[in-house]
Design goal:
Blueprint: E1 2-8, E2 12-18, H1 22-34, E3 38-49, H2 55-63, H3 71-75, E4 82-88, E5 96-99, E6 104-105, E7 118-122, E8 128-137, E9 148-155, E10 161-168, H4 174-197
Antiparallel strand pairs: 1-2, 2-10, 3-8, 4-6, 4-8, 5-7, 9-10
Helix pairs in contact: 1-4
Length: about 200
């Protein structure tokens, strides 16, 4: 089996999988989509909210903001670890939009992938203040933990040759999603073999 990168950029990667049965190639595709752990905001404590958006609406928006994740941060954190993120808009005298760039993280790596994601618009004398906790999760639990926007698999005119295309949400680099997916599949197969060998 072999893997060849056809093209890649910051958002997307396409690789050619050769000598790989369809079921394994498709398993990698599915893991790329929702099986690679990344960080996402899981819980939010609203300390102050005088905006027109309900607390639940703000919490929902925060959960869908992609957070930068690196393989090193995955390897050094267990899934129960949490990273705190905070925001305090302070008092405002004019209408303004609060963006993701105002969120402060206790971790230098784990933070919103963009500073320009809108959270809520505040009118004069309105304020928002919260503490949020992000944790590692997988897309199989909730879509906010999907590492990819899309992951497609197409066949070529050769047997056992497929083109895997993965577009990242921004949390991980595309190539790291593919590599992590291959490692995850290997781990799952090893565990499955061990389980089967222990059956009596």
């Amino acid at each position: 089996m072999s893997l060849q990168v056809i093209n890649q950029d910051e958002q997307k990667i396409s690789v050619k999988l050769q000598g790989m049965p369809l079921q394994y190639a498709n398993a990698i595709r599915r893991i790329c989509l929702n099986g690679v752990p990344i960080f996402a905001i899981d819980t939010v404590d609203i300390l102050e909210n005088s905006s027109i958006l309900a607390d639940e609406g703000i919490a929902h928006r925060l959960g869908l903001i992609p957070l930068k994740t690196e393989l090193s941060s995955i390897e050094s954190n267990i899934e129960s670890d949490k990273i705190m993120l905070t925001l305090d808009s302070g008092d405002t005298t004019e209408t303004r939009t609060i963006f993701s760039g105002e969120i402060k993280s206790q971790d230098d790596i784990i933070k919103p992938i963009s500073e320009k994601i809108p959270i809520v618009t505040l009118a004069p004398n309105q304020r928002i203040k919260f503490e949020a906790h992000a944790r590692l999760g997988r897309g199989t639990e909730h879509a906010k933990w999907n590492s990819s926007n899309i992951a497609t698999l197409t066949e070529t005119d050769k047997n056992d040759e497929h083109i895997l295309t993965v577009e990242t949400t921004g949390a991980l680099e595309p190539k790291h999603i593919v590599l992590a997916s291959i490692n995850e599949l290997s781990y799952r197969l090893t565990n499955f073999k061990e389980t089967m060998s222990n059956l009596k």
